[in-house]
UniProtKB/TrEMBL annotation:
<dbReference type="InterPro" id="IPR029016">
    <property type="entry name" value="GAF-like_dom_sf"/>
</dbReference>
<dbReference type="InterPro" id="IPR036390">
    <property type="entry name" value="WH_DNA-bd_sf"/>
</dbReference>
<dbReference type="InterPro" id="IPR050707">
    <property type="entry name" value="HTH_MetabolicPath_Reg"/>
</dbReference>
<feature type="domain" description="IclR-ED">
    <location>
        <begin position="78"/>
        <end position="259"/>
    </location>
</feature>
<dbReference type="InterPro" id="IPR036388">
    <property type="entry name" value="WH-like_DNA-bd_sf"/>
</dbReference>
<dbReference type="GO" id="GO:0003677">
    <property type="term" value="F:DNA binding"/>
</dbReference>
<protein>
    <submittedName>
        <fullName>IclR family transcriptional regulator</fullName>
    </submittedName>
</protein>
<keyword id="KW-0804">Transcription</keyword>
<dbReference type="Pfam" id="PF01614">
    <property type="entry name" value="IclR_C"/>
</dbReference>
<dbReference type="InterPro" id="IPR005471">
    <property type="entry name" value="Tscrpt_reg_IclR_N"/>
</dbReference>
<keyword id="KW-0805">Transcription regulation</keyword>
<dbReference type="GO" id="GO:0045892">
    <property type="term" value="P:negative regulation of DNA-templated transcription"/>
</dbReference>
<keyword id="KW-0238">DNA-binding</keyword>
<dbReference type="GO" id="GO:0003700">
    <property type="term" value="F:DNA-binding transcription factor activity"/>
</dbReference>
<dbReference type="InterPro" id="IPR014757">
    <property type="entry name" value="Tscrpt_reg_IclR_C"/>
</dbReference>
<feature type="domain" description="HTH iclR-type">
    <location>
        <begin position="17"/>
        <end position="77"/>
    </location>
</feature>
<dbReference type="Pfam" id="PF09339">
    <property type="entry name" value="HTH_IclR"/>
</dbReference>
Length: 261
């Protein structure tokens, strides 16, 4: 770290540019924790306050951060078209994997990610069966009753997870919906231990879903892939067979995102 507070543009030994690395760190903190003061970002990032201020000033001019009435910084409107473009890019590149999962396993395959503290579905390959699950692309739901939400929660940094759980609404949708933080935390811990998460009729009666989280760009998981279908077909035996297939696809996507390294 440059203790003088200079925002250096010197590349790291691995080719990364330090000032860009630091700016992205600040944006990720704002995405994770919400509005922050310069001091709050200094504390969270470990960067000198002067460096934080200079980076924020540049991003504010470009619209990548904005200020609220309390002069705290938050994510800005210039990020919206970037996020929309990235979402479409991810959905397009993953769609072929979803189609293969749906064809091989006979159930609908989905791609979902967090949008704030909601889950948004961004792609689906439907099962060819006459009785199948359909999730509208663009649909937003609370994460606590979904397999994709719990899979993503299971890979969150602990501090970020606890922050979300402390303010997340947990409405009941079915008799199986988890409606307590303690119960949700237990389900998330199980997903972390098992490497996959299950929605066992928690969002809709008679529907079961299994999901795994997928890392994006080698960072924290950016989205999750899942299979969903009627409970009578989504048996424990089916899930035991499906989970290795989901992890195979996860590895293929992560490998492609890392440039095949």
């Amino acid at each position: 770290m440059n203790d003088s507070g200079a925002s250096s543009s010197k590349p790291h030994g691995d080719g990364r540019v330090q000032s860009l690395d630091r700016a992205f760190d600040l944006l990720e903190i704002l995405a994770r924790d919400g509005a922050q003061s310069v001091h709050g970002l200094h504390e969270a990032s470990g960067l000198p306050a002067a460096t934080v201020h200079r980076l924020l000033t540049t991003m504010h001019v470009r619209g990548y951060v904005s200020k609220d009435a309390a002069r705290r910084y938050l994510l800005g409107p210039s990020l919206v078209p970037l996020a929309e473009g990235a979402t479409q890019s991810v959905a397009g590149s993953v769609r072929v994997h979803l189609r293969r999962l749906a064809d091989e396993l006979g159930e609908s395959a989905n791609l979902a990610m967090f949008d704030g503290e909601m889950i948004v579905y961004i792609a689906q390959a439907q099962s060819t069966r006459s009785m199948r699950m359909f999730t509208e692309v663009g649909r937003r739901v609370l994460p606590h009753a979904t397999a994709v939400g719990k899979a993503l929660f299971a890979r969150m940094p602990p501090a970020a997870l606890e922050g979300v759980l402390s303010r997340l609404a947990l409405p009941r949708y079915t008799d199986k919906t988890i409606t307590t933080v303690e119960g949700l935390r237990e389900s998330i811990e199980r997903a972390a231990r098992d490497g996959y998460a299950i929605d066992d009729g928690e969002q809709e009666v008679g529907v079961r879903c299994v999901a795994v989280a997928v890392a994006s760009g080698g960072q924290q998981p950016g989205f999750a892939i899942s299979l969903s279908g009627p409970t009578e077909r989504m048996t424990d035996e089916f899930i035991e067979r499906a989970v290795p297939q989901l992890h195979r696809v996860r590895e293929e996507i992560e490998g492609a995102d890392d440039g095949g390294a």
